[in-house]
Amino acid sequence: MAQTHDAESIRKETRTYIGVFIALAVLTVLTVGVSYFHLPPALAIGVALLIAAFKGSLVAGFFMHLFHERKLIYWVLVLTVFFFLVLLFYPTFSAWDQRHL
Amino acid sequence: MEIPYNSEARPDTGLYNAKLGIWLFLASEVMLFGALFSSYILLRTGAPSWPHGRDLGLNVPLATLNTMVLIASSVTVVLSWASLRLGDIRKFRLYMGLTILCGLGFLVIKYFEYMEKFHHGHFPSFNTFFAIYFTLTGLHGLHVIGGMIVNGYLWGPGAKMWKTDPQRFTNRIEVAGLYWHFVDLVWIFLFPTLYLL
């Protein structure tokens, strides 16, 4: 539990947060830089989403401390990810289907 | 009646109630933004051609600056929580104050961006790109405003709780922080989607 952590480990966490901030800033510059190379669309989308996913996992893992969380939260998130993917892809599949009828 | 388990963890879940509550709320938020991202994909894949945000006058340097501002605010809010866990209310006020200022900075930059668009006649009705651009960034902006109201309350009058129930107050900051990080997380995906691709 977070509140039982001693002062030294909280200070260590603080240093980690600063490190994550620097990583996020560098990745932001990187993703903007890559966009100026005018890569083919599929590659550009892939690279941008990969960087965004990595940045997102840094925020979720460290700032939202998901790397050290209770099991119940993980279960809530597994369900969320499942329904999110259904929401994201089901309409796309159905639209694709309609175009090929 | 007193709400149970808002300071200490509930034995069966291992969490204080508000923490489970905020994660369930964030799950519903994922579905809200997920529906709009799904709409974006459908609109984009269904369109004969899709404009590059930059070619339509979206200001990439300004949006990059805004991304940095929001990331910085994510750090300050987590530092405000860490300060409380170290028992330092003054540092909490400093970091939470900076978080609110960053939120304000984000909105001011967004305001200038919006004004630039309106000046060129780029309203949501201009084309499909701007329709989804204003929907997504507008909804995100409302989330920033909502977070600032909560953070402002916790920075000001809400901080009285530190004297009466410091653990519960620390938990409130953690929960407010989780929401604020989520708002940052959404922007991390909105920024490349709308501005760079």
Provide an overview of this structure.
With 101 residues, chain A is mostly helical. Chain A folds into 2 domains: 1-69; 71-101. In chain A, 80% of the residues lie in helices and 0% in strands. Chain A is built from 3 helices and no strands. Chain A has helices at 7-35, 41-63, 71-99. Chain B has one domain (17-49, 59-196): Four Helix Bundle (Hemerythrin (Met), subunit A) (Up-down Bundle), CATH 1.20.120. In chain B, helix 4 (128-155) runs antiparallel to helix 6 (166-196). The longest helix of chain B is centred in the middle third of the chain and has 31 residues, at 89-119. Chain B has 6 helices and no strands. The chains are: A mainly alpha (101), B mainly alpha (197). The interface between A and B is large, with 49 and 49 residues.
What tags apply to this protein structure?
heterodimer; A: 101 residues; mainly alpha; 2 domains; B: 197 residues; 0% strand; elongated
